[in-house]
Structure formats: structure tokens, C-alpha cells
Amino acid sequence: MGDRFENSAYRFKMYTNESEVLMCRTDPLSADNFKILKKRIDEMYQVNLVLDNLPAIRYTKKDGYFLRWTGYPVGIRVQDFYYVFNHLKFTVLVHKYEETNVAHVMRTGDGAEVIPTVQDGESGKPGYMVVGFEVVPCSINHNADSVKIAKMYDKYPSKIQCDPTTVAMHIKEHEPIVFTYEVTFEESDIKWPSRWDAYLKMQGSKVHWFSILNSLMIITFLAGIVLVIFLRTVRRDLTRYEELDREAQAQMNEELSGWKLVVGDVFRAPSNPALLCVMVGDGVQILGMAIVTILFAALGFMSPASHGTLITGMLFFYMVLGIAAGYVAVRLWRTIGCGDHKGWVSVAWKAACFFPGIAFLTLTVLNFLLWGSHSTAAIPFSLFVILLLLWFCISVPLTLVGGYIGAKAPHIEYPVRTNHIPREIPAQKYPSWFLVLCAGTLPFGTLFIELFYIMSSLWMGRVYYVFGFLFVVMILLVVVCAEVSLVLTYMHLCVEDWKWWWQSFFASGSVAIYIFLYSVNYLIFNLRSLGGPVSATLYLGYSLLMVLAIMISTGTVGFLSSFWFVHYLFSSVKLD
């Protein structure tokens, strides 16, 4: 949408209809300008206009349905000819003030400051509020010679008939283009608080309900498996175990099979424990940020009328939740080290710099590409400095504070002792990486429908505002990740594979692989018009960053649920 606005030359007078208004006559198109204009039309560049904080909305009809778009294309290519949309037909929907004597309006942050207050002596005239802004782009073959001496806002000498179904203004080198517009004001029953409804009208709500139903079916299926594990297998085993006397228990120990055999190894420290602690800490931070931001958006605190509130909210919650990242990372580090304080500062520092460092590096590389392409989408240098200051002056100190609290908190004590010599893991029927990869399909199944809408919002410029559905899908995703990881951990323990730490993390985190493959599929089939390698690199760079955040957060959910399950399972076993 672009959050940096420029004033355009279009001029409207409230409740004054105008037609055939001359905007300008360009200089004859040079070879370079002609080439650029053709390129922009090929790349499907959009013009986004805003009136009183409302984006221009365009309606198109397809298969009997009306589709809503924000903005309009620069032009269109028909066979080998390029046509530019040089006439705009604006419709401004206005609502009359309930009272003619409006003294002041309560500020809502949604353009309230531009509502005119009635001055003395004007109290008889009705006041109007803008409640809708529609545009119909047309391609009209204007006679450039007829407006050679005309000025801006003069009337075009002949009648203009705007028909969006036909195109006529074929662009040619060394020939000028004439731009015109017309504006019609219509009174509407839409009231000021409801003026965003046209943009946020939920399309395809049945599809969202289907998505939730689909997720619930997966959850119920997995919940059934978890229930079977808890009630039948674990409970039956534990009951039998507790009913035996010591001699029988000793005899049974020799005949044990499955998860009970790995009792002396199940809490053995994993490989790269510091990295695991850091990723789990960052996962808690990212997941917390996502849930809180989406909840606030679902409750209506982050209106699209206030540009940039969603990104600002995400950054704010991410920084504040640095405390949670530091606390979880350090407490887990102390748990793995059996209460040892050593190295907690290093872990807290790594948690503060791991994900933000990767994100900052990715954004810097992508920004250099944008600067090299002279793109206005490049992040200004001043904003880079602000982001760095936010990171090192707020996020890092808060993460270290969280780490300090985690270092002071008691570590989680293991219910069983770990043997000095690790037990050999028997040969497995299926490799663990294969099971881990398969596990990712279930969480992906809960969110792939919602993913299409999110992708369309990010890359197609469509307004996304079904945050209520997104919040429900997010909670269902967390539940599915927890259940998938728990079931897979139990399966690994049953075949005497005690290396469950990283496996539980990647069992639910592997959903990120499928999301990335979906992103590539979306690039190939939905963004075919994407121009050049720079655009594709930007898309894949941002997608990789998003996928990494999803992997860390979903992996964290899986790991924490498995850790609780393993702790609960072995704390129920009475062993000498």
C-alpha cells in the first residue's frame, strides 16, 4: 500500500460534481520514458490513491461476482499494444451530518482531524463526511492538439464517455498523453464509523469456517491418539509397575521394553544445548508476539485506517517479550546443566541476538538490493539506525533482565538419575528424520487455507482483516504442534531412542519446510508477473525470514509440550 504519501494534482470541491476536467498534457514520450512506461504496464504496477484516509476502491466483475481491489493499474497490454488509463471516473460517497450545527467531532485517529468544523455564519449549510471513495479507470483516445494551450483544471473541449470495458489510448513514442478526470458526489446511508466496512467485508467466510473445521478434525484425531497413549499405554504400564513387589519389579526390570528401558538416558543433555536453549527462548518471544498482536488486531485495536500500527505493535510486543526469551532460555540452560549457573550470561546474550541478528542481516542484504534498484521500498538509513537503537537499547537489556530472573529461579529437577554410560540405540525401522518430516504435514494442514489469504494480503496488496479467524487458527496450530510433537516423542521413546530433545523441536518445526514450499509454489503460479531476479530474490528473502520465525516458534511449542510429557511420564515411575 505504501505508507509514505505524496499529494496528487487531483482537486475536488465538496459536493460539487465535475466532468471532463483536464489534468495535464505530458511532453512527447522520449524513448526512455516510453520504455519505462511499457515496463511498468508489463509488471502490473498499481496506482494507489487515498482520499480522507480511504484508499480508492475499484470493482471488477468476474463469473457473476464483484471483486474489490484497492487502486488501479497504470495500463494494460492487449496483444502487442500498450494502453494507458488516462481518464479516471471518481465517485465520492458522502454522508450528511446528523446535525447541521456540528461544533466538534471526537477524534478517532481515523482522519478525524480533517472533518471540517462549522464556522459562524455557515450554520445553515449542511456539512458532509467522506464515507466512500471509488474509481473507474478508462483509456480514452484524447486529441492532444486540442488542449495545447489549455491550463490545468480547464474543461476538455469534447464530451468524454468513460467505458472501462474498452481501451483506446494506445501509447506511442514521441507522442504526448492527455490525462483527464471526472468526479461525482453521491449521498450515502453509510455512517462515519462504518466507512471501512467496504474494505473489510469478509470474503469467503465459508472458506475460513472450513479451514477451522479442517483444523478441528486434525486436532480431534491427534487428541484421540494422545488419549490412547495416556489412558491405555502409560496408565496401564504404570499401574502394573506400581502393583508389583520389589522382587517382581527387579525381575520385570530385566524384561522391560519400550520407554521404561531408557529411564537412565532420557534426560541426558542434548547436543548443542546452548543453541536449543536460545531457539526455545526466541520461540517463546516470537510466539508471544504473534498471539498478542493478532489478539489486539482481532479486538479492533489495529485498524487499517491507522497505517503501520500492525508493524509497530509487533515490534513493541517483540521487544517487551525479550524478558520471556531471556527467562526461558536461561532457566532451560540451568535445567540441562542440573542447576549450574555457569554460562547463563552468554546464553542470554545469544537469545537477545540470535533471531534479531538473522533478521537484521537479511533486511540489510535485501535493502542493498532495493537501493541498487533505486526502489522507493528501500528502508531509509535513519530507520535502520532507529531499529538498531531499539534492538540494543531496549530488546537486549530486557532479555538480559529476563536471563537474570531465570538464573535466580530454581531449575527444574529431573525425576530420574542419568547413567554415566549412554545406552546404545537399537537400529530403527524408519529413520527419525523421515518421521520428523512427516509430522510437519499435520500442522501445515491446519493453516494452509489461511496461508493463501495472508500471502494475498502481503504480496497482492489486498486488505487482510479476518484477524478473528486468524487468532482461532493460531491457537489450533499451537494445539496441533503440541500434540504432534508429544506423539512422535512417545513413539521414539518406545523404540528406545532417547535422543528426543531436538527431534521434538523439529517434529512440529518441520511445518516451516512445507510453508516454504508453498511460498515457492505461490511465487511460480500466483506471482507470474513478478519482474526480474531482484523481485524474486526479495520475495524469497522475506519468505525465508518468515519461515525461520515460524520454525522457531512452532518448534518451541513442540519441545515444551514434549518436555512436560517426558517429565510427567518419568516422574510417575518409581525406580531405585
From TrEMBL:
It is found in: Endosome membrane; Golgi apparatus membrane. It comes from the Eukaryota. Pfam families: EMP70 (PF02990). InterPro entries: EMP70. It is a multi-pass membrane protein. The keyword Signal applies. This is Transmembrane 9 superfamily member. The keyword Signal applies. PANTHER family: TRANSMEMBRANE 9 SUPERFAMILY MEMBER 4, TRANSMEMBRANE 9 SUPERFAMILY PROTEIN. Keywords: Endosome, Golgi apparatus, Membrane, Signal, Transmembrane, Transmembrane helix. The chain crosses the membrane at residues 209-231, 274-298, 310-330, 351-371, 383-407, 433-454, 466-488, 500-524, 544-570. One of its GO terms (biological process) is protein localization to membrane. Belongs to the nonaspanin (TM9SF) (TC 9.A.2) family. GO terms for cellular component: endosome membrane; Golgi membrane. Its main location: membrane. Signal peptide: none annotated.
